[in-house]
Amino acid sequence: MENKPNFVLVGLWNPQPKYINTRHNIGADILFSYCQKKGKEFQLDSSGSFQSTKYEFEDKLVNLLIPMTSMNKSGQGLKAFLMSTGIRDYELVVIHDDIDLAFGRFRIKKASSDGGHNGIKSIDSSLGHSNYWRFKIGLGRPPSKVDPADYVLSKFNNDETEEVEFIIEDSMEIIDSFLENSENGIKKASERRIIDVI
Fold it and tell me: Lower CB count within 10 Å: N or C terminus of the chain?
């Protein structure tokens, strides 16, 4: 396993109980489901700053990481993981919400701007660069007069709940596709259908 290329998949969230099932936590929700699909269990590091697990996918070693810091300090959890494992040569994929994408739309891009996302800002700061992959999950813009910060910290409404299940299922398939071939994964993400639920 030591000679296999390393991938690090990170799901962003706020771990506090009051934020469970909120829009901002969709990245971690996807990774929790993906971990379960692979028959793995996350283990909390003794530092308490992250939980992680790993598995082999074809010729790759895939590390799954959930920072146990608040969203705004996600980079600290990632940095603690990298220091703990000593991983230096790796491909990083951060899974997170994006209000500038329509609800249910996906995008996979590398080295893009933080777009005002505080979790991404924290990772950029901790790594000292933004040259990594981002798997963006579209939330859509909030209704008029609703503060974006309040919107992402709110729960999905009843009309969206069923589609969220499909979002998670499709995301897991796209992760596997990306690990097999990054270009195919990028293409599948950009072509995901949208159900108009609003």
Answer: N
- Residue corresponding to tokens 């998949």: 9
| Cβ proximity of 96 and 134 under 8 Å | yes
Active site residue 129: no
What is the Cα–Cα distance from 118 to 131, expressed in whole angstroms? 17
Q: List the helix and strand counts (H, then E) for the chain.
A: 6, 7
Q: Which of 24, 96, 117, 129 is catalytic?
A: 24
Select from 158, 156, 130, 178 the least CA-distant residue to 34. 178
Mean per-residue pLDDT over the chain, rounded: 95
**Domains with residue ranges and CATH for the chain:** 6-190 (3.40.50.1470)
User: What is this structure's pTM?
Assistant: 0.95
Paired tokens of 47: 């530092």
Segment holding 143, helix H or strand E: none
Check if the beta carbon of residue 28 is closer than 8 Å to that of residue 36.
no
Length of the chain: 198
Query: What pLDDT shows up at residue 59?
Result: 92
Question: For residue 32, which of 8, 62, 64, 76 has the smallest C-alpha distance?
Answer: 64
